[in-house]
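ENTRY TYPE: paired fold submission
RECORD: A
CONTENT: sequence, then structure tokens
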Amino acid sequence: MFLQDHLNTEQGMKPIVEKPSPIAATEPVVCEVVRGTDFGCVWHYHPEFEITLIVRGGTQRLVGNKLSALAPGDLVFLGPSLPHDFHNQPAPGRQPSPVEAIVVQFQPQFPGVDWRHLTSMLAIQRLFQRADHGLKVTGDTREAAAKMMEQMLLVHGIKRLILLLQLLDLLASSEELQEICPSFPLRIKPGSPDRIGKACEYIVAHFAEALYVPDLAMMVGMSKSAFSRLFKKSTGRTVPQYVNELRVAHACCLLTETDMTVNQIAADCGFVSLAHFQRQFREHKQCAPLAYRGQLSQSP
């Protein structure tokens, strides 16, 4: 359970506030390269918008309540205060491969508090609203955006700011953006109670264990019926649907990154039986687990 063990270390899945980069004191747009055996982050959030391009390495990304396999070329645009983490978890018995990523961060109010409300900026405003749920950039847009981010590393000040505006204009006019977690309940608000958010954090940290609605309701101080109604309203899913989605996402990672058998993966992800695992996997991925692994091995 290498992913679960990693998640359990992240302060009980309570996201921490990331401090701004020192570069933010001198640059209107932060653009940095991350290199190493991991991405150097934990389950966290911050007040800046963030655009991340994975150049190499990585195994999973967790954005809001969505766990997805990670691969070179992955490019995401995340809104302020959206909890996220990037993992580079090696398969059992293997050493982690090197990672490299380009990370761009900027404040929501740049280059002025009211600029987004101008009529000509409505597309940017809609883009920023969609980024609250995280956006995966695909297709030709991803290729063009990646080149712009590489160029941003080479310039500073106003030139980097101009490139960012061009990048945002590209993303705002593209149809190749996919929302990552459209049902994520809400962005983290420091200091304010969020009972469903607390339950989601617990579920993500313990998805491979037996989870019961009465226990979750008691944990957040609600009745079972009230908790179930609020959970469905907040996430768009029942608790079992939410848990199964996380388990299937983790199974996809294991099918991609390990040689574990389907039986082993079913047990590792917390499914009560192989039949239940097969049924849930087909429901979410429209194919059997072994077929999913076969498709990956055949891809270039």
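RECORD: B
CONTENT: sequence, then structure tokens
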Amino acid sequence: MSYQIELRHLRYFQVLAEELRFRRAAERLYISQPGLTRQIKQMEDLYGVQLFERTKRNVELTPAGRFLKEEVDFIFNHLDMVKHHLESIGQGKEAELRIGFIGSAAHEVLPNLLLDLNQKFPDIRAVLEELSNSSQLDDLMNHKLDLGFVRVPTVPSGIRKLQVSKETFSVVVPLDFPIDQHNFKSLTQLKEEDFILFSSEYSSYYFNLIMSIFEDHHFQPKVLHKSVNALTIFKLVEAGVGVAIVPSGLEHGYDLQIKLIELDRIPQRTGLYAVWKENNRNPALTNALKSLKVKD
């Protein structure tokens, strides 16, 4: 066979796999539809597998096509990472470190890491993005992030983790709420209240952990609202919409008319984990892990 796979073939395949319509994919790629069809046929002939199931109305990925889509996404994400690193080197920077985090990491763990990096490795440029737990893990797998901070103890194969903090939970109530840390006895005192909780989209593990607290107190909470954002939850509590349960570390960093009642007598604890892709070769990640005092 006289031709070989080139990056343009992989890009054609990637766009068609996203669109699953030859006409729309060809328009995105600025090539003719017959030309796209020909390029895909060349790929299938070279690999010896069918990548798409075609009917008059539908185009679907075959199992081989789904596998190739994951690999192609990885290739292009990795090439983007290489491009960013080359740009950083060209600007006199050592490297770029892409960090994902959930809101609670921004209060202490993340600032401490950035301060340490700035002192020890001033040429590292950190790019920060607040993301959900699941989005961080997906982006780590696809090499869109170098380091993440999540509240999930179980991570996919190929991801490493380090627990960087462990803390209690606290009930969040309005500042003028009649119950406080001194007269609080049990969560059952709040069984008639409306609760505002972190959504399961934040982390299904975390949501189930919170629900286990209620189970231990033998009642199901009246969940009025759910959110993935701590500030949203706190603002709703401040407005008197309901009460909440959050990690105790979230007490810092907000100037709101609320108070936290620590649940220090229950067994449930929440951990914050640093997570990274095991085969990530970004030198800035290596230095960041040193700042986190990672031990093998």
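NOTES ON RECORD B: The radius of gyration is 24 Å. The chain has three domains: 7-72, 93-165+272-291, 169-268.
STATUS: closed
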